[in-house]
Design a protein that fits this description.
One of its GO terms (biological process) is rRNA base methylation. This protein has about 250 residues and is an alpha/beta fold. The protein is built from seven helices and 13 strands.
């Protein structure tokens, strides 16, 4: 490793790798990640790269054995352990491509632990490319400095979500017909929680009644204006993080 890195550590490239990291580990990269480092970032032998693996935190590495289409990253030392993740799930009805990508990115940036796609009667998208959405989450984590990735689970129908809901987890749902002010509701119910956001057309009356009847559900309002689904997801998540002291 050279005495003087090619750029400061805090501005060096940062990548998620799906391999265990530790002192002395050597990570061989090819494909898109190698292309990014070699062709976009112009990494040379000895240049600094930061890595995280969603398990052990963030590590400092340097490039070695750099070739035209692949390279090796030699791990030098740990920069910080894996972050403590706030215990918040975001349960959100899938929305159109582009908008759902934005929701995934912002949920990752804001610190959500788990993202649960929820299928409702008015959901306009019933198929999701989870691999593509996970790639968006990884990119967001790389850019915003997260050392933990949100868990993106398989879509679930609303009825099944409510039936299997854990008793110790509050379920805050954005109800356009009214409810408690969101920030007040969240501060009054600390602990493990989830936020439920409906589809672009909202929950239908029967669904809304079923949610309200659930013992862990707390209806809340996000203010006097009607928000798009993706805006409601980000706003509610930010409010919960603020109420929980994460901000």
């Amino acid at each position: 490793m050279p005495a003087t890195p090619a750029w400061p550590t805090d501005s060096s490239p940062r990548l998620f790798v799906d391999q265990p990291l530790g002192d002395g580990a050597r990570i061989r990269l090819d494909g898109p990640q190698a292309h990014y480092l070699l062709s976009v970032m112009r990494v040379k032998d000895g240049d600094v790269v930061r890595l995280f693996d969603d398990a052990t935190g963030e590590w400092l590495a340097h490039a070695t054995d750099v070739r035209k289409r692949d390279l090796t990253l030699a791990v030098d030392r740990q920069l910080r352990p894996r972050e403590i993740v706030p215990d918040l799930w975001l349960c959100v009805a899938p929305i159109r491509k582009g908008r759902i990508d934005w929701v995934i990115e912002k949920a990752c940036e804001l610190g959500v632990d788990r993202i649960v796609p929820v299928l409702t009667r008015r959901t306009v998208v019933d198929r999701l490319n989870l691999d593509r959405l996970r790639a968006h989450a990884v990119e967001a984590a790389e850019q915003c400095g997260r050392t933990a990735l949100p868990r993106l689970v398989e879509p679930v129908k609303l009825a099944a979500l409510l039936r299997d809901w854990p008793a110790a987890r509050a379920l805050f749902f954005a109800d356009e017909t009214g409810g408690l002010p969101a920030f007040d509701a969240m501060r009054a119910r600390p602990g493990p929680a989830a936020i439920l956001i409906g589809p672009e057309g909202g929950f239908d009356p029967e669904e809304r009644a079923g949610i309200r009847a659930h013992p862990q559900a707390i209806g809340m309002t996000l203010g006097p204006r009607i928000l798009r689904a993706e805006t409601a997801a980000a706003a509610a998540t930010a409010l919960w993080m603020a109420a929980a002291g994460d901000w």
